[in-house]
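Q: I'm building a small set of examples for a reading group on sequence design. Run inverse folding on the following structure and report the sequence directly after it, with nothing in between.
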């Protein structure tokens, strides 16, 4: 067993549980668009967690564009946070067939996003993609969970299109679509290994290089390769599950 296997916990963090609950309440309309969320102290009582956990959850939702903090006023639900599309990110099914469907949607969106990013990215956006890659690398070397850094990489590519709808679609699909995120319903021990994630990093690096070189065709092909290989990895897991069931007494 690798150091990564020992370090990464399978149980979602407290902050992830708070994030999921707030997402559900926003998408259900319990917390309405434009409305104010409970105060920090109220949420510590509601969820039975520390202020640090609440702050981490709010920061994650703000990064996803679901809430907005207004200095001196509190935290408010973003105007488009309760859109039906955002409910896709709440998908909990662990069926690999669902993961393959999500990847198919991502291919239709992210391949073109990579090409547009190569053509439109600014120097600061190029740096943001590199920083996300560096953060993934840092966490991987420390044996820490890389799922959020993986999502941040794809989000930075979407942001570099300078078309806000690419970011909105990616947020709608949600960070749980990243298989090496321990909160993903499609995560497994095999995708939390150092070797697996090093492979992802190599694929990410190809995307990064093409975008940095403003090679639109190369960026599209690198993203196509990355997501196609992800599909094949899921199909291999599906075949393995089928074989295991057949061999079972």
């Amino acid at each position: 067993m690798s150091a990564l296997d020992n370090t990464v916990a399978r149980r979602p963090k407290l902050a992830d549980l708070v994030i999921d609950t707030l997402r559900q309440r926003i998408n259900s309309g319990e917390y309405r668009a434009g409305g104010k969320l409970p105060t920090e102290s109220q949420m510590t009582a509601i969820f039975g967690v520390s202020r640090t956990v609440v702050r981490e959850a709010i920061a994650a939702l703000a990064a996803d564009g679901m809430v907005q903090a207004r200095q001196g006023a509190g935290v408010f639900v973003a105007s488009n946070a309760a859109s039906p599309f955002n409910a896709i990110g709440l998908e909990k099914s662990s069926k690999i067939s669902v993961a393959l469907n999500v990847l198919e949607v991502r291919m239709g969106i992210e391949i073109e996003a990579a090409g547009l990013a190569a053509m439109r990215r600014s120097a600061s956006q190029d740096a943001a993609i590199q920083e996300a890659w560096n953060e993934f690398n840092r966490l991987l070397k420390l044996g820490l969970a890389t799922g959020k850094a993986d999502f941040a990489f794809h989000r930075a590519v979407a942001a570099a299109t300078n078309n806000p709808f690419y970011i909105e679609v990616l947020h709608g699909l949600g960070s749980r679509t990243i298989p090496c995120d321990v909160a993903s319903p499609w995560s497994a021990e095999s995708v939390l290994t150092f070797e697996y994630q090093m492979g992802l990093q190599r694929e990410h690096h190809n995307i990064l290089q093409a975008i940095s070189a403003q090679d639109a065709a190369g960026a599209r092909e690198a993203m196509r390769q990355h997501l196609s290989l992800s599909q094949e990895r899921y199909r291999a897991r599906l075949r393995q599950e089928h074989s295991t069931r057949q061999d079972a007494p």
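Residues 100 and 221 are 19 Å apart (CA to CA).
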